[in-house]
Amino acid sequence: MASNDPKTGGGFFASLASSITNFGSAMSKSVNGLMGYEGLEVINPEGGTEDAEEEAGRGRWKQEERDGYWKMMQKYIGSDVTSMVTLPVIIFEPMTMLQKMAELMEYSHLLDMADKTEDPYMRMVYASSWAISVYYAYQRTWKPFNPILGETYEMTNHNGINFIAEQVCHHPPMSAGHAENEHFAYDCTSKLKTKFLGNSIDVYPVGRTRVTLKRDGVVLDLVPPLTKVHNLIFGRTWVDSPGEMVMTNLTTGDKVVLYFQPCGWFGSGRYEVDGYVYNSAEEPKMLMTGKWNESLSYQPCDGEGEPLPGTELKEVWKVAEAPKNDKFQYTHFAHKINSFDTAPKKLLSSDSRLRPDRYALEMGDMSKSGFEKSSLEDRQRAEKRSREEKGQRFAPKWFDETEEVTPTPWGDLEVYQFNGKYSVHRATADNSEDTTDVKVTQFNPWQFQDLSA
Description:
Elements: H1 14-23, E1 27-30, E2 41-44, H2 52-56, H3 63-73, E3 92-96, H4 97-102, H5 109-116, H6 120-133, H7 135-138, E4 143-145, E5 152-158, E6 161-169, E7 174-180, E8 184-190, E9 193-196, E10 201-204, E11 207-213, E12 218-223, E13 227-230, E14 238-240, E15 243-249, E16 255-260, E17 272-278, E18 284-291, E19 295-300, E20 314-318, H8 332-338, E21 346-348, H9 356-362, H10 366-390, E22 399-408, E23 411-418, H11 421-427, E24 435-437
Helix pairs in contact: 5-6, 9-10
């Protein structure tokens, strides 16, 4: 029987995984020889032979900005910098983390197919392909804005989905999201954790993602791999997500284990993902292979993980064509997320689209964006002091904190659940006082919801 680990088991991927492992990690170059940069590492995704100083001089930073930022950030090496450091807008994209959550819905039709199929293993193929599909968008090297406490993002007009996300905690930064259509319900609590390593950062997806398929009531649980962002300050920034993604059918015990190959010498293995669908007895039933930035395919397999005779690889997902030379490497769907085309007619006044710093950056005004970002952060701190003086505790509006604390590979997580109030609100939004007509939203100042009052 094939191992659950495609790196070590026999079968279709054994020799492939072994050869990639032998390549080792991408070429890593220390710039210890440069005064003031002791311990800083530059990693070239192409594995070229240029010297460290040449690679370190590449990237989006100007020389003086790069040196100044490195001196400021040295003291944070080894720390979680999720919200403790004020970052310049030069590294931001005009989108918030709440909108980034919504990008997972681009290929939500795969969840519709998972709900419709009678085949329990194809259900896992469709659902895990949906989970993989967002990584094409996640390879962008721009940082999204951290949401303000109480900030929201709504999305409609896409595959029959109603999506709502809310920033439910500021320290540590936590977001909760819910999406639903006739085929599935998606629920997520996210608490990102980071470790700053000098010229790179590890991002740990501390969170819980659950998908309920409505026809049979099947519940799927997703545990993604960590993400590594290389060459933050020196060199060309790039993203990798080495490790395992596990999706488990909590109802039947079936699961998918997909292994993201690490980038090796000369880019070998970069983007590649391989693995199997297993039944509850941990016997492989489907092999899956592809590249997370291109496409995924599947094929029925035997108990050793070898393709069944008379079958062939079939494509299950392919990335949609993206705009060429887009400044922020946006997909067409990312542009839709930022637009009012996906907004309800009456939009919550706390929606991410209405943030003046985000909008200024979208319009290309970095100076105004930086000013507005600082202003929002100052107002957030002032509101926190006001709540503390009054002995009040912030309470999210659309999600409730539960008593459940769930373990993850990177730490425990306090779970928030969708409280259903949004569904009632959306049904009566035309008469709601906390909404704004989308026809004029881009001209309105972004306002906080004082949810603690």
